[in-house]
Amino acid sequence: MLSERFRRACDRIWEASYNHPFVQELGRGTLDEEKFRFYLRQDYVYLIDFSRFFALAAAKSKSLEAMGRFAELLDQTLRLEMELHRSICSEFGISPEELARTHPAPTTLAYTSYLLRTAYEGTTEEMLAALLPCSWGYAEIGVRLKASGLPEAPHYARWIETYASKEYLDLVAWLRRLFDESTADKGERERNRLFEVFETSSRWEHLFWEMAWRMESWPL
Fold first, then answer.
1. Could you read off the pLDDT of 115-165 as tens digits, one per residue?
2. Which of 11, 180, 195, 205 has the fewest C-beta atoms lying within 10 Å of its C-beta?
3. 94 — phi, psi (to 5°)?
4. Does 205 qualify as catalytic in the annotation?
5. Distance (Å, rounded) from C-alpha 115 to C-alpha 113?
């Protein structure tokens, strides 16, 4: 399958993300809470543009099934995931008002801008190639961290269990299946373009962890 081929080709990047100190300390429960708060605020900003991405994916879908699923993902992101996000943030003392005032860090803005440009200018297959490193990458991290043992820190354990859950893994499996089915008849030139998108998003995922670890800010 093409998704698995792309994953193997980007193994160095994905392993760097999994072994990033932010991810590893989160898994051990030793991550500085201020870094996690920073991550939560930036991830909230990311989710807003992620919702726009799903809206564009629904509009560009070639089948009613895919259109309905992306519309469902948009609804779930706006109503459920973002509400869950606000709930976790409140446990860390981050109010909805503070979330609303959050400005994207340079990496957050660059990553979401890349996703939205792909959504506006690219094909459905390119959108899926851009989406998979985030969705699939989080699932892989969640499963691997859970297999190593959940941390005693309840907030971090909750984060891990969310992305290792059956519901989330089923979603990722559906996205991979949709991507593999829609690219089955693509030629090598088109596949090379899709890999370029997949690899770029994989790199942005790694940079997002680095951004959170360094609590990146604008220099001026």
1. 999 999 999 999 999 999 999 999 999 999 999 999 999 989 989 998 999
2. 11
3. -100, 115
4. yes
5. 5
Which of the following is catalytic: 91, 205, 210, 216?
205
Catalytic-labelled residue, pool 134, 152, 181, 190? 134
To the query of whether residue 126 is one of the catalytic residues in this protein, the response is: no
What is the Cα–Cα distance from 8 to 20, expressed in whole angstroms? 19
From residue 214, alpha-carbon distances to 8, 110, 210 in Å are 28, 16, 6
User: Is the pTM of the predicted complex or chain greater than 0.85?
Assistant: yes
Task: Report how far apart the first and last C-alpha atoms of the chain are (Å, whole number).
Answer: 46
R_g over Cα of the chain: 17
Of 66, 65, 198, 39, the closest CA to residue 131 belongs to 198
Angle at 193 between CA 188 and CA 199, to 5 degrees: 120
